[in-house]
# Entry
Amino acid sequence: MPNISRPRLIRFAQENIRPDSLLAIALRHENLYYGTLWLAFDHPHLFPPDEVRFVATLASQAALAAANTRLFLNAELGRQRLAAILASTPDAVLVTDQNNRLLLANPAAWQVLGLGMDTGEGQPIEAVISQPELLELLRSDSMEKQSAEVKLPTGEIYLATASSVMAEGQIVGRVCTLRDITYFKELDTLKSDFVSTVSHDLRSPLTLMRGYATMLEMVGELNEQQLGYIRKIVGGVENMSRLVNNLLDLGRIEAGIDLQLELVPVHDVVERVVSNMQLEASQKNIRLSSEISQQTIPLIEADPSLLQQALQNLVENAIKYTKPAGKVHVQVQTRQDRILFEVRDTGIGISPMDQPRLFEKFYRSAQQNSKEQRGTGLGLAIVKSIVERHGGQVWVESQLGKGSTFFMSVPIRQPKKEL
Ligand code: ADP
# Structure
C-alpha cells in the first residue's frame, strides 16, 4: 500500500501500526461466508502466487473449521431442545438399543417405574423394569406399532405403546411411551357396572309388563283399537327386552366369563340354529337351508351356548335383512385347524362404507331398508366378542342390493390353559 489514501475503505485505529502491505481472503464454505482472513506486513511486500495459495489453503481450512463449529452448535442446540421436550413431557418415554439396554428414560419414566434420578440408563432392561408386559413389548422385534396395558404395583394402569427405531433398514432399538389410563379404566368399569345393573334391574319389570299386557285380553272383551294399543305396548316391551338381553350378554362376554368348553358336534349347533329360525324364515317366505361339507371335523371345542348364539345372530340378521322370497344358506367347512361357518343371504347387502364398522357396538347401517328393521345394533358386536373369545375371526363380504356373506372362523381346539 504505497499510497495511503488508496485503501480508503479500510480504517485503522490510531494506536495500531499502519500496515504497508495487506492480503485479505474470504472464509467461504459451501457458498456460506464465515469471515475474512487478513495478513498484514509493516513493510512493503508483494505477495507471490505460491504465498497467496498457501494463505488461501489456510483460509479454506479455517472456513471448514468455522462451518463445523456452526454445525456442531446447531446439533447441540437441537439435542438440548429435544432433551428439554423429553424432560417436560408428562408421558413416560423409554428408548432401548438393539441389545435391549436402556438408552434413555425421561423423568416421567423414572417416576412411573420408580427409578432414582439417572439410574437405569445403559443397563439391561430386565434390571430396571419388572413388568412382564412391558418387557415383552420392548423385546419384540415387530416392525408394527404394538400396545399393551401395564399394571403397576400402585394399582395405576398405563397404556404402553412401542415401535421399532429403524436406521438404514435395520432395527436399532425400540421407543416406548407410557400413558396413564387409570381414570379411563375406572370410567369404563363404572359404565359397564352401571349398564349391567340397570339392564338386570329392568329385566323383571319388563317381563311383568309384557305378561300383564298380554293378559288384558283374557280378562275382558276388548275392541279393535284397544287390541291395537296392546300390540304396540307388547312390541315396545319386546324391543326393550331384546336390548336389555343383548346388553347383559355383551357385558358378560366382555367381562371375561370363563368359557364353558365342551366338544360340541358342529352338526347339532347348525341344526339347532336352523330349526330355531325356520319359523321366522317361512313367515317371510325365505328359504333357509344348511350344508355341512363331508370333510368337516365333527367336533369343535367351544362353549356350546355362546357358539350357537353367535351363529344364530348371523342367521337372524340374514333373515331380517333379506326381502321375502329370498334365500339364506348356512355352510360349514373345515379349513386347516379351523371351522369356517358361512351365512349367505340374497338380501339388501351392505355398502362398502358401512362394512368396516358393522361389528361396532350400536352401529346400524343408515340404509333406508335396513333402518325399517327393528334392532339394537348389538347383534354383530356380540358375534365378534364371542368369536374372539374363542380365538377366531369374523368378517363380511357383501354387495349392495345383491346380498351378504358373513364368515366366522373358529379354531377346532382351544389352547390349553396354563395353571
Ligand atoms: P341390528 O340388526 O340389531 O341392527 P346388528 O349388530 O346385528 O344390529 O347389525 C348391525 C347392522 O348391520 C344392521 O343394522 C344392518 O344394517 C347391518 N346388517 C347386519 N347383517 C346384515 C345382513 N345380513 N344384510 C344386510 N345388512 C346387515
About this structure: The pocket of adenosine-5'-diphosphate is lined by residues 317-318, 321, 345, 347-348, 350, 358, 363-365, 370, 375-381, 404 (CB under 6 Å). The mean pLDDT is 88. Residues 137 and 320 are 44 Å apart (CA to CA).
